[in-house]
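Q: Here's a chain of 208 amino acids. Please give me its 3D structure as tokens.
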Amino acid sequence: KIDFREPQTQQPTQQTDSSPEVATCFQIHNQYIIIPIEEGVIVIDQHAAHERIIYERTVANFFNSHTQSQQLLFPYTLEFSAGDAALVQHLFSNLEVLGFQLKLFGKNTVILEGVPTDVKPGNEETILQELVDLYKENEHELKLEPRDNMAKSFACRAAIKFGEPLNQSEMRALVDQLFKTQMPYVCPHGRPAVVKLSLSELGKRFGR
């Protein structure tokens, strides 16, 4: 089940982008959500949209030191390389705020007892390694501030993926939550999350 809880913001903001009236929405190729509107259609990249939602929620949690975690029924014992284990130790306090419940065991072993609530069931065992891998990549290429790097890395790895089917209620919830974020039209990396196609643009494509 995908978690589309209300994103929290760092401080009250003037919301300039209202959610479109969603009478009907469609998912194509399990990748994009199509919404007919009066002026044409809106196309939403489901992964980029969910990234934006999770990113802003994570930034708000860091800002407020607010932890949201789900306890695992059976903890996972994770083995890391020496470098990755050192990075986990370095980021330990931020990982805890993010919602990871961890215990360090030995030099390279981590006991995972809880994960952030945004982690989809079935991904609990792999999410921390995926987060660490992307964190290192971003650190090398983008030189991000550590918490922003973690928020972006986690949002990317926890967001719904291309090829993942969504039902009507999940699509509507995603759209509603997306347009309550501060920057709904782009993902945290600056790529488009929403594209609007007007009737006039469509008409030009058909030679009208």
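Q: Can you summarize the key feature?
A: The helical segments are 46-64, 82-90, 92-98, 124-141, 146-158, 168-178, 199-205.
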